[in-house]
Amino acid sequence: MKIYFGFTVAGDPLLYGGGEEIVELVVQMGLEVLTRHLLRDDAWEADRLITPRKSICGTCDWLEQCDLFMAEVSGSSFGVGFETGYLLGATTKNVVLFYRRDAVRKISLLITGIAHPHCTLAPYSDLDEVENWIRKRLAATKILPRPGSVGKLAVLG
Question: pTM higher than 0.85, yes or no?
Fold first, then answer.
């Protein structure tokens, strides 16, 4: 399963937390995260080395490739909003938006008010709650990594 994980790159991701830990959890579960490289310390600088057009084309390519879109939206940005809107408006892919409960007053009502059938809001208080949510959700879809084989999936059923 290929995951596109969205989070703010142009803003300050350290202010919003969670993103790196969530991505590492998903990778440890044996799933591929197409946007993992954007968590590097030099991601902002690397992002600015390419043209805006190349950036949006790359983003759209990853969105097309992904099986599931997850985003940490506690510090949402235009980019995360674009990615979410694109997927919900142009595809039938599922979207999961994580946000810290203690940040809810700072989050756009366009996020917390979403009632789209392919979008799930996942507020959390701590990363253990996120881990439990992800594990339960993957078990519910019956797509889990095969024991002992990172990156290879088995459909259970």
Answer: no
